């Protein structure tokens, strides 16, 4: 399986960028029309979603891991996941077959959740209980938050014989990381993706935490990476892929001067530099 045929999913930076785009339209907006256009995506859409959201005012927009959260003054929070191909569109010129949720504001702005593969999800929970939402219960800390430190990472990795790459993709260790940004952060930190997670020294974990934060922050500034189906809500494509150090660059030169290699584990490509990643 080559990179061109792999399922490249929106990761934390893409979701953060999406939430920022939605905030420009939805923050403080009254939801005049909420129209689910099918009964399900990956999972069933709540049957009372239209009733509970129509007429409500948006009071908050945030993110948890790869999920977006839209809070309202009725004490409900809409939780969305973009899956493999989902994206929000702002004021689309026309509505297509893959626009599965429409939201119109009181000022006439229109948003559509477009998801050709329907691997995304929509759910509605009480705002005072969203932290107990099933996918969130066992999640690790946010990588850009204050709880993600070398000490907390060391505790999460203690005794783990699995590879550091596999460990970082485990949402119980750290929330929101995906294949692209794990490859990038490991390269920046100079750590081989196959190294046993539980045997990495504290100084190297400190560098890894710093690298994860740096990679994610740079990707958010760039509007995310340009994946096959992903675009920001305004229709523009993120350009962080132009800054990739190793991901998708098999045979190219690593910043250290080595040659980027690719290996496949469990159907996923891992890109790394054997010269600088030990």
Task: Produce a short descriptive summary.
The protein is α+β, with helices and mostly antiparallel strands. It is about 25% helix and about 20% strand.
Keywords:
about 280 residues; alpha+beta; N-terminal domain of MutM-like DNA repair proteins; Helicase, Ruva Protein, domain 3; 4-stranded antiparallel β-sheet; 6 helices; about 25% helix; elongated; disordered N terminus
Characterization of this structure:
- This protein has helices at residues 12-26, 49-53, 150-157, 164-169, 179-189, 202-221, and strands at 31-36, 58-64, 67-72, 76-81, 87-90, 99-105, 110-114, 121-126, 261-265, 268-272.
- By secondary structure, it is of the alpha+beta class.
- The protein has 2 domains: 12-138, Alpha-Beta Barrel (N-terminal domain of MutM-like DNA repair proteins), CATH 3.20.190.10; 150-272, Helicase, Ruva Protein, domain 3, CATH 1.10.8.
- The strands form 3 sheets. A 4-stranded antiparallel beta sheet has the order 1-6-7-5. A 4-stranded antiparallel beta sheet has the order 2-3-4-8. Strands 9-10 form a two-stranded antiparallel ribbon.
- The radius of gyration is 20 Å and the shape is elongated.
- It starts with 11 loop residues before the first helix and ends in a 6-residue tail after the last strand.
